[in-house]
Amino acid sequence: MLRYRLITGPLLILLVVGVVFLDDYIEAGYSELAAAFPKGSVLFLFSAVLSVLIAREISAFAKDVGIRTSSTLSSLAALIALTSIALSTWQCTAMDASVLLSSGFALIFAMTMLTVGISRETNGAIGLLGATLIAAVYGGAMLGFWLLLRAQHSAWFLAAALLTTKSSDIGAYAVGCTIGRHKLIPWLSPKKSWEGLVGGIATSALVAALFAHFLGAHASSADQLPVWFAAIVGACLGLAGQFGDLCESALKRDAGAKDSGSLLPGMGGVLDVLDSPLLAGPVLWWLLHFAPQVV
User: Fold this and answer.
1) Do 167 and 193 form a contact (C-beta atoms < 8 A)?
2) Residue 100 contacts residue 163 (beta carbons within 8 Å)
3) Taking a C-beta distance cutoff of 8 angstroms, is the pair 165, 240 a contact?
4) Are residues 200 and 89 both part of a single domain?
């Protein structure tokens, strides 16, 4: 297991760096491509793939607990939600953006009920709608916050935020295994401890502060954060990431599954890797939204 993690982990990091580099390269390196493709287009395409994979894993959870679901319908719902957010970042007013997202969820609702009508089977209709909307939120709306962030910040800023969030997992694991004594939520995640939670938050705060210190002079004005504020942001991302991990644990425990999937050797499914960034995205957006008022 550890051997697979040591292989899969670096490959995932290389993949993220590659996506970030290409996204930033198109924006800054080729003016003709930048004019043809909106900002964050590469990230959107990459997110669309992740969106489908997340939706299919959510659908699998629903099937495991006997809820009527469709992986195809869940995937379409997640893509509609994600695309609605992506479109809202491309030359749209706030009103246009709200209409797009609201219309996207209305379309998801109509599409799901149409599926019920075509099947002529109302049994499990509420469960089908619930599972489809969960996929739309998890794989579309929450993931879409990273596209909203990309509209205002560089791709490298997003990579730093992602690494900051995931560093909480490393810090929590290291501290928890070393000095963890007091169980956090034993009925949900027996291995997590309060010491590990604090260690994870502290690790994210430190990593964020280091990013702000060493990259601040080379970053654009939109990406620059005071070290003290970056540490606060990092701590919040670490806390949000740990909560996101617990949220996925609740879904897995209900479904009786150890992992959300088996796509990534040694790590499980896509949701097992992205459970913390998915919840950290909205937290980061709101923290940066209010940043000018407190910094």
Assistant:
1) no
2) no
3) yes
4) no
What is the structure's pLDDT at 13?
79
Residues 17 and 57 in one domain: no
- Structural domain total, the chain: 2
Same domain, 255 and 175: yes
Which of residues 97, 122, 152 is at a domain's end? 152
* pLDDT for residue 51: 97
Q: Are residues 172 and 135 in the same domain?
A: no
pLDDT tens per residue, range 90-147: 767 767 888 888 999 999 999 999 999 998 889 999 999 999 999 999 999 999 999 9
| H or E segment to which residue 183 belongs | strand 183-185
The whole domain housing 126 covers 38-152
To 5 degrees, how large is the angle CA 72–CA 78–CA 79? Answer: 90
* Cα 94 from Cα 145, distance rounded (Å): 15
Which string of DSSP letters, residue by residue, matches 6-54? HHHHHHHHHHHHHHHHHHHHHHHH-HHHHHHS-TTHHHHHHHHHHHHHH
Q: Cα separation of 143 and 80, whole Å? A: 12
Tell me the C-alpha distance between 34 and 56, whole Å: 32
